[in-house]
Amino acid sequence: MITLLLNPDEYMAAERMVQIKAELGDPEMADLNTADLDGPRTSASDILGQASMMPFLTPMRLLIVRGYLSHLDKRMGQSKGTENAAYSEATAILAGLTTLPDTCHVVFVESGVDKRRHLWKGFKPDGSGPKVAGLSDLVKAKTINLEELNTPDARAVEGWLQRRAKQKKIAIEGQAIQMLSTFVGPNLRQLDNELEKLATYASGRAVNAGDVRLLVSDASEALIWDMTDALSRRNGRKAMQALVELRKGDANAFYLLTMIARQYRVILQVKEAERSLGSNENAIGKQLGLHPFPVKKALDQSRSYSFDQLEDILEQMLEADYAMKTGADLETTIDLLVAGLTQRR
């Protein structure tokens, strides 16, 4: 059996590996019959040799190969032709996978295989001979079982969280699910950890929005996003509600000003990146070193402002900072800043 985990979410891949290992039976015997290879440091002959070894006192061995195909795909992409070591390696592994014994479950964990290139589509080694079947051909022939455990997008996070809470028998209110999803975003490992922490705190009762607001570490940043979202929509009431919630969490005035300014800088950076990259949140996030989730929010908010308006807002932040450091009342300065931003046209 061969499984390809292609571009998997880190947490979902880890969970899947736990399931696969459990299928081997006794944990001690499973450990004895499991090998884990670092793909860039291994070769087709190593993988095929390991996969051909007989299991010890169990019906099945497990071979985990991490990053081998991604590394090979990159080498092939850098080649000028098909008559070189990278393509010879590809020919060996692709052909060898079709002849493996049923006594080994080989799992490839890969994050960088390009479906437009030869490793996926297949190729002719000398340009005119018989085609070497690519990964897609092996998937179609059911030689490889393809599993794409992708990170859910922002809209699907709430559903994932509901299912996870049900699976763990954790009672949680709908508003708490919505708030937790917004605060954390599609970071499944953190969501799972936060859910466990909230359930422990709730101690048998249903987790509510107040629990999330109190315990989740990313709550203050998410509330800042709520505030800037309200500001971009000129909704003074919601902006002030977010400000009140932040103050309930003991956020001081300088912290609030710093966080608001940071979010507006992100909005400006995203708006500038959109000029060359379009509305591709993944590409923008990669260029700016940000997760796609806040990039999406910043893209939505940036459309309510011109570049001049954003630069003027950041200038107001500097003026507020100076006023607060030279004797102005801290809370009043923040209140006036927020109120003024909701009135902008």
Mean pLDDT across the residues is 88
- End-to-end Cα distance, whole Å, is 62 Å
Which series of helices and strands comes N to C? Answer: EHHEHEHHEHEEHEHHHHHHHHHHH
Stretches where pLDDT falls below 50 for ≥5 residues?
none
Radius of gyration: 26 Å
**Can you count the beta strands?**
7
The largest beta-sheet arranges its strands as: 2-3-4-1-7
CATH class of the largest domain: Alpha Beta
Dominant shape? elongated
Class by helix and strand content?
alpha/beta
Write the CATH homologous superfamily of the largest domain: P-loop containing nucleotide triphosphate hydrolases
Which architecture of the largest domain per CATH? 3-Layer(aba) Sandwich
Strand content: 5-15%
> What is the total number of structural domains?
3
Largest sheet: 5 strands, parallel
Percent range for helical residues? 55-70%
Number of helices: 18
CATH fold annotation of the largest domain: Rossmann fold
Descriptive account of the structure:
The protein has 345 residues and is α/β, with parallel strands linked by helices. The chain has 3 domains: 2-147, P-loop containing nucleotide triphosphate hydrolases (Rossmann fold); 154-215, Helicase, Ruva Protein, domain 3 (Orthogonal Bundle); 219-342, Zinc Finger, Delta Prime, domain 3. It contains 18 helices and 7 strands. The chain has a 5-stranded parallel sheet, sandwiched between helices. Strands 5-6 form a two-stranded antiparallel ribbon. The longest helix has 25 residues, at 253-277. The radius of gyration is 26 Å and the shape is elongated. The N and C termini lie far apart (62 Å). The mean pLDDT is 88.
